[in-house]
Each structure stands twice: as C-alpha cells, then as structure tokens.
Write a structure and sequence with these properties.
The chain is elongated, with a radius of gyration of 19 Å. With 72 residues, the protein is low in regular secondary structure. The chain has one domain: Single Sheet (Ubiquitin Ligase Nedd4, Chain: W). The chain has a 3-stranded antiparallel sheet with strand order 1-2-3, with no helix packed on it. It has no helices and 3 strands. It binds iron/sulfur cluster. Iron/sulfur cluster binds next to strand 2.
C-alpha cells in the first residue's frame, strides 16, 4: 500500500503548487504544461506537489509586551 507522505489537508491540491505549473506575477491564472491556462485553485489527476512553490503563511508576532516579559 502506498504511504501518503504529504498531508493533503495541510497542503491542499492546487494548480499553483503543482510541478507542471508556471505562476505569473499577478497569480490570477496558472500556465500548465499539461492543460494550458487553468485556475490557481483547481487541480487534476496529474497533480504533483512542488514544495518550492508553496508560499508559507506569515507568522503573527504579538506586540503587546510589558517590561516584566524581559525581566530576569
Ligand atoms: S491542471 Fe493538473 S497538471 Fe496542470 S497545474 Fe493543475 S494539477 Fe498540475
């Protein structure tokens, strides 16, 4: 049985993350080597995950520090 390496809930299948896709700067469409022009959020059965195309979420850093947070 084939083991799933990539968690599909954490990394959903999207053309914008596919190895066959070229994403222009405005990201309104995706240029696919297999299908031509496609929507960025769609996918097909030839989908292959490309980890270099994933854009990580920005981390949110809290700014409400007090002097006690830095005291030893
Ligand atoms: S249409 Fe299929 S092959 Fe093309 S980019 Fe989307 S998932 Fe990849």
């Amino acid at each position: 049985m084939k083991q799933k390496i990539i968690d599909s809930k954490k990394y959903p299948k999207k053309c914008s993350n596919c190895i066959f896709a070229r994403v222009p700067e405005d990201k309104s469409v995706v240029l696919c080597e297999k299908k031509g022009i496609v929507e960025p959020d769609s996918h097909c059965r030839k989908y292959e995950y490309d980890p270099f195309k994933r854009v990580p979420q920005k981390s949110v850093i809290s700014t409400d520090f007090t002097a006690e947070d830095f005291a030893l």
